[in-house]
Amino acid sequence: MAPTDWLPARLRAAWALTPDIRLLEIEPESPGALAAPGSHLGVAVMIGERPDTRSYSLIDSGADGLYRIAVKRLPDSRGGSAYMHGLEPGARLSISGPRNHFGLTLGRPGYLLVAGGIGITPLHAMALALHRSGARFRLLYAARTRQDLALADGLKARIGDRLETVTDDEGGRIDLDAAIADLAPGGEAYVCGPYRMMEAARRAWSASGRPVQALRFETFGTGGRHATEAFTVRIPRLSREIVVPRHQTMLEALEAAGVGMIHDCRRGECGLCTVKILETDGTVDHRDVFFSEAQKAANAQLCTCVSRVVGGGITIDTADRAG
Known about the structure:
There is one protein chain. The chain is of the alpha/beta class. It has 3 domains: 6-99, Beta Barrel (Elongation Factor Tu (Ef-tu), domain 3); 111-218, Rossmann fold, CATH 3.40.50.80; 231-317, Roll (Ubiquitin-like (UB roll)), CATH 3.10.20. It is built from 7 helices and 18 strands. The strands form 4 sheets. A 6-stranded antiparallel beta sheet has the order 4-3-6-1-2-5, covered by helices on one side. Helix 4 (176-182) crosses helix 5. The two termini are 35 Å apart. The model has no long low-confidence stretch (mean pLDDT 91). This is Oxidoreductase. GO terms for molecular function: 2 iron, 2 sulfur cluster binding; oxidoreductase activity.
């Protein structure tokens, strides 16, 4: 199946892993491609009466003909997770992929996997692949409570002591400095979790002096330094002023207003949806992992699929010429 194809599928089974995380087994109508570790699946969803798409990380390769995803219902959901939690077995779906912006490089002397909350999903697939290959790795998995450690029991049974878990309610925390220091020279780290976890990993990795390219990220695009709020986007060349509600991304608001946009991942990873910042009277909350910290500080561009503005609005330019 080519990454850009949309094909029919059905929801074969679904069950709760935690009170707010649901595992879904999706069976494509025709055999699908194997998913490389770190891949995600595109799913067509309905947000109210509006069709949209969402991407969900695959927790294994789909070698048995089923694609498995774990979806967390978010209190600040823009509608995708609520839709996925409302599906019943037998439901017809349209899917695309697998695609991969978070590929695992095999053959390194060591690996450090760090997951926060629902960020376990792509790292679950990576851990299984590394275990099968006999690689040296550790998976550090943090959540709020023991109950929130979705997939942990099954992983523990398969990879044993390579999985280490910590929870906030027990006062646990991942010691990133120590974990990075224990990583073999030439090893790589893969991180998926909340924005603050990724920022802490960036700082610890930078302080270690290891090569920047050996640290890889995936983000859910649902959190940043500031609370989510509505803001206004101005596009002088198009004579447009568009309000971005708190439950909608900037990319979604621009698309709904008829502004031509280019995009792919919708998770702040690929950089295709970036726009030029002309002026801002608020604070830009960069939530992507595409731009470096220096580029974010320069405030010249932002990824519209995840980044937002607080305390004011923003003036941008886009590639749209149709008006």
